[in-house]
Design goal:
The chain is α+β, with helices and mostly antiparallel strands. Strand 6 and strand 7 form a beta hairpin. The chain starts with a strand and ends with a strand. The structure holds zinc ion. The site of zinc ion has 6 residues, from strand 1 and strand 5.
Length: about 130
């Protein structure tokens, strides 16, 4: 496992893309919308990890709700795993709660699942596995 990426919720992706490309001294390597999640994402490489900027595509998006409640900032931490199904089993046995126990397609060629922040000290944790 490693920290695969940090997800950051932003109000306006174009403005934040400008900010992060100046901050990191490079452009994003990918912009991708995940229609089902109501988000547009933008990815930056940062050594072994990545930064994922998240913009809401509609008011029902979980990102829109997050921004309403908390404003811009770190939204989730994503741990890269080799075998997402066995990690889900292991963590369920350990008593962790998931937002949904069924892994689904995420951005950047990943299969993802989220742990409920209630069971992880208020931090939204994403597990992600490279698509086979
Ligand atoms: Zn993510």
């Amino acid at each position: 496992m490693k920290i695969e990426h940090l997800g950051i919720a932003v109000n306006t992706l174009s403005a934040s893309d400008d900010l992060f490309s100046r901050l990191l001294g490079k452009k994003n390597y990918k912009q991708e919308s995940v229609e089902r999640e109501g988000v547009t994402t933008s990815f930056y490489e940062l050594g072994e990890s990545k930064i994922e900027l998240l913009e809401a595509r509609n008011p029902e998006s979980p990102i829109a709700k997050y921004l309403d409640k908390k404003g811009e900032g770190i939204h989730h931490i994503a741990f890269g795993v080799e075998d997402i199904d066995s990690e889900i089993k292991r963590l369920k046995k350990e008593g962790f709660q998931f937002i949904s126990e069924e892994p689904k397609e995420g951005a950047d060629n990943k299969i993802v699942v989220f742990l409920h922040p209630k069971s992880t000290n208020g931090v939204l944790i994403e597990l992600c596995q490279e698509k086979p």
